[in-house]
Amino acid sequence: MNANAVLRPDPGSVPAGGPTLSKEIVMKRKDVVIVGGGQAGLAMSHCLNRRGIDHVVLERGEVGQRWRNERWDSLRMLTPRWQSRLPGFSYRGPDADGFMTKAEVISYLEDYRSSFSAPVRTGVAVEAIEPQEDGFEVRTSDGAWDAGNVVLATGACARPNVPTMAASLDPRIEQVVPTRYRNPGQLGPGGVLVVGASATGLQLAAEIARSGRAVTIAVGQHTRLPRNYRGRDILYWLDALGVTRETTDEVNDLGRSRNQPSLQLVGTEDHRSLDLGVLARMGVRVVGRLSGLLGRHACFADDLAQSVRHADRKMTRQLDRVDRFLAARGLEGAFPLDARPDSIELDEAPTQLDLRAEGIETVLWATGYRREYPWLQMPVLDARGELEHDGGITPVAGLYALGLPFQRRRNSTFLDGVGQDAEELAAHMAQRLGCQTLAVAG
């Protein structure tokens, strides 16, 4: 028998009179099973590969599955191409300051996979992960694996986080989530209410408005920044300041930091900024946070002006940090001062709308994402269904996670940031596997 295989009775073949080995399944053995073949899973694979740790990556679809099937047609990365750094791999093309298209991201991940022959098995769906005495049993659509360690690398965007009030909406009004949206042409006739004004909501509101539809956007807490400042992309400055690399022990309120909305940015060839003022000039109606739905009637909080002022103050603080950074190094002359973005002034917003009377036939929920682990058969989820972990190390020994929001750093979910988290988890895993080896040898 192969030393890497374990024979176990098939639970479905156990008769009432006791166990039998008349039907057996072969469990393949790996030191580590990685669930998910996106940027996190591949980064983890690279780090384990360098340490000579035997592992496999299980992917339900193809590499970069969510980029293939759950992203809209015109989407580009929010981070510049130069900021696409994975362990042992980085962008080397001619337009480092531009932004990858959806197709480029998929190609980039495929090239990364090929660069170190990552042991990825595509088309393999995980059905259950259960603890056992020496690790975990990972049951899949292609058989079972016996794993000493498991890494959950399924990302931060498992499913759209649609609020419960959506169930109260008039069924004649279509509801759409970003993972199902591709382009304005798929939407029915009539106006669109976009709920949420972070990166996704802002971009989709602009795209749908350009198609000629009337658009209303409901705005809550948001983070406004210009695309460029003092001759550089804003992410150049956040990188230089170390903002994106801030760790969990460097912030006062980790829970709040993990729930920060994504930056109001868009990646385009002309490097333009996109904010609520730009949308208003396009004819988009801007209203406050959606606070209630009942049939065709929507209620909005009277907090729009407050939200806008708060976002402007935060933007001013970040740009002040850039100015101080340059002044401290005597570099003001090398990066001349730009005119800062104007404060946003908006018309008074209604607090109630009859959606159908306003011609709104679609609600698009750009309200963020949640994680989900339906196949995880162990008590490691909190009351909200989120994974309990400390920097990706869960309470269950040998069970890890990678690619979660602010897992260890602000950029833990970035293509540019997941690698450092992977390196640290791989080191932890290598130490654990070394201890396991010593225990077996003893």
Task: Map the helices and strands.
Layout (H helix, E strand, L loop, with lengths): L4 E5 L14 E12 L3 H12 L4 E5 L5 H5 L15 E2 L2 E2 L11 H14 L4 E3 L3 E7 L2 E6 L2 E10 L6 E2 L13 E3 L14 E5 L3 H12 L4 E4 L4 E2 L3 E2 L2 E2 H8 L12 H5 L4 E2 L11 H6 L3 E3 L2 E5 L2 E4 L3 H25 L23 E3 L5 E6 L3 E2 L28 E3 L16 H24 L1
Parallel strand pairs: 2-3, 2-9, 3-6, 9-24, 11-22, 12-13, 12-22, 13-18, 14-17
Antiparallel strand pairs: 1-2, 4-5, 7-8, 8-9, 10-23, 15-16, 19-20, 20-21
Which structural traits does this protein have?
alpha/beta; single chain; 442 residues; disordered C terminus; 5-stranded parallel sheet
Q: How would you characterize this protein structure?
A:
This protein is 25% helix and 23% strand. A hairpin with a 2-residue loop joins strand 4 and strand 5. With 442 residues, it is of the alpha/beta class. It contains nine helices and 24 strands. Strands 1, 2, 3, 6, 7, 8, 9 and 24 form an eight-stranded mixed β-sheet that branches. A five-stranded parallel β-sheet has the order 11-22-12-13-18. A three-stranded antiparallel β-sheet has the order 19-20-21, with no helix packed on it. The protein is globular and about 65 Å long. The two termini are 24 Å apart. The chain has helices at 39-50, 65-69, 102-115, 199-210, 234-241, 254-258, 276-281, 304-328, 418-441, and strands at residues 5-9, 24-35, 55-59, 85-86, 89-90, 120-122, 126-132, 135-140, 143-152, 159-160, 174-176, 191-195, 215-218, 223-224, 228-229, 232-233, 263-264, 285-287, 290-294, 297-300, 352-354, 360-365, 369-370, 399-401.
